[in-house]
Design a protein that fits this description.
It contains 17 helices and nine strands. The chain is 59% helix and 12% strand. The chain is extended. The strands form two sheets. The protein has a six-stranded mixed sheet, with helices on both faces. The N and C termini lie far apart (129 Å). By secondary structure, the protein is of the alpha+beta class.
Length: 495
């Protein structure tokens, strides 16, 4: 799929979601009102202006470009039993597609501040009765920081920016007054089920971190593009749905982790409390959960120590560069003292990190052993005596079946009579003779056709090459008559 098609698909999805949310808002907030959806030419005008700047005069290009469709939603309330309708708000919505798509079909950058201001300036030219109270602009590639800052600096009309995320979600930037009002639900394009699917997708992508150090709730909320409170509700739902997920509180921050062992039954929680009151040994599942929580806390402590060590290493490197560039011995002495202090602090932190690493290794080994033990007990397996007994019985059954099969093959009697066999042999000979006669006739026909084809080919060659035909040699010319009549001269006699 090329970039234009992807942007058009995003535009279609955006407008469809907007229509659905408007219908929901009418049912929940405007029960005595309605939402009127109208098509406006804001996008077409914007594309025409961009085409004039690029000196493109092909009108068919507008049909291929995203951003040509724009909509206006008028929210109305009924008055006097529905005889009159009062408009309480106008929302203009369209997709901003960067003008680079007009000339090259490549993924553009985020929409900037100037393009957002140009879209807002169009509505200032409208009459006051037709001006929108809110403007919703969307982009498939997102908005720049300067463009998002306009949301909180623009009063009339209220500006809301929405951009698509790579994981299928939506990033919404709206004024604080709109966020606190019930109209904020107008821009919640994702359902709770879709948000939950996105959460599980991110957890699958971070499986290693989830199984070791855990994922902090603020970091998870940043990945989802949601406030921390909404992300926390999704995490609680995931923990209820998946018994392996658990939350660990470390220094006021909630971390989501995953235990390797599933607790069998939730009804055992009361029995677990009773066992704890009686100071009995906890179950394997309880031990695994406790050790998983301890490991997550240790991982967080080691991450903090690693961060401090990195800072000290950077400070030491800067101090050494400063000491190398020092112009006096007094300055070098102060730098050397600081390098020594930093080095000692690094050794202390490294020793603490080493202790924590060893503790994590011990916990990891015990977790591994308990996990193997629990998995071995989770399935009831037969004993060695039972396996040997069943193997002997199976071998006996196979031997008996083999003997019966051999006996059946040796005593099998044919069901065909002698008369029927003779008749079948006669029919077989007749068919064989017929087949041989047909094969001979086909061979004769093939030879005849081959000879005729050769003769025809020779005639054609003779017609094409007449000069190569054999020619009789010319006759020898006869001697003249005078030569024949003259007598031959006699030789002299020898005396």
């Amino acid at each position: 799929m090329d970039e234009r098609a992807r942007q058009r698909q995003f535009e279609e999805q955006f407008l469809s979601q907007l229509r659905n949310r408007a219908a929901v808002m009418v049912k929940t907030m405007l029960r005595d009102g309605q939402a009127v959806l109208e098509t406006v030419d804001d996008g077409v005008q914007q594309l025409e202006g961009a085409m004039r700047r690029f000196e493109l005069y092909d009108r068919r290009l507008i049909d291929e470009m995203p951003g040509a469709r724009a909509a206006q939603i008028r929210f109305q309330k009924n008055r006097v039993g529905g005889l009159f309708k009062v408009t309480i708000g106008r929302l203009r919505a369209m997709v901003l597609a960067p003008a680079e798509l007009l000339v090259k079909n490549e993924r553009p950058a985020a929409v900037g501040r100037d393009q957002v201001l140009a879209a807002l300036a169009r509505y200032q030219l409208l009459p006051s009765a037709a001006r929108p109270t809110s403007v919703l602009l969307a982009s498939a590639t997102g908005f720049s920081e300067a463009a998002r800052a306009l949301v909180h600096s623009t009063n009339e009309p209220r500006l809301i920016l929405m951009s698509g995320r790579d994981d299928g979600g939506w990033d919404v930037e709206m004024p604080e007054a709109t966020r606190r009002s019930p109209w904020a639900r107008m821009f919640e394009f994702e359902t709770q089920d879709e948000l939950y699917k996105r959460l599980m997708h991110h957890l699958d992508q971070s499986a290693h971190q989830l199984d070791s150090s855990g994922i902090s709730l603020p970091a998870l909320a940043q990945k989802l593009g949601l406030p921390v409170d909404r992300a926390e509700s999704l995490v609680r739902r995931a923990c209820r749905a998946n018994p392996r997920l658990m939350t660990v509180l470390h220094e006021g921050t909630v971390h989501l982790s995953r235990t390797p062992v599933i607790e069998e039954e939730s009804s055992m929680k009361l029995w677990s409390r009773i066992r704890r009151w009686l100071r009995l040994k906890p179950t394997v599942g309880e031990q695994v959960r406790e050790m998983t929580a301890a490991r997550v806390r240790l991982e967080q402590q080691r991450a903090e120590l690693d961060h401090k060590l990195s800072s000290l290493q950077i400070e030491e490197k800067q101090a050494r560069e400063q000491g190398a560039a020092a112009a006096s011995d007094n300055e070098r002495k102060h730098v050397a003292a600081r390098i020594v202090r930093v080095g000692r602090e690094q050794k202390r932190l490294a020793a603490q990190a080493n202790v924590i690493t060893q503790q994590i290794d011990v916990l990891g080994t015990r977790l591994h052993n308990l996990t193997l033990m629990q998995q071995g007990r989770s399935v009831a397996l037969p004993s060695p005596q039972e396996l040997a007994k069943e193997a002997a019985e199976a071998e006996q059954v196979v031997a008996q079946l083999s003997t019966s099969a051999d006996l059946a093959a040796s005593v099998e009697v044919g069901a065909m009579s002698s008369a029927l066999a003779a008749e079948e042999a006669a029919v077989f000979d007749e068919l064989k003779a017929l087949s041989e006669s047909r094969a001979g006739s086909r061979a004769d026909a093939k030879v005849a056709s081959g000879e005729s084809a050769d003769a025809k080919a020779a005639a054609e060659r003779a017609a094409r090459e007449p000069s190569r035909a054999p020619v009789a040699p010319p006759p020898v010319p006869a001697a003249p008559a005078t030569a024949r009549a003259k007598p031959e001269s006699a030789r002299p006699e020898v005396s």
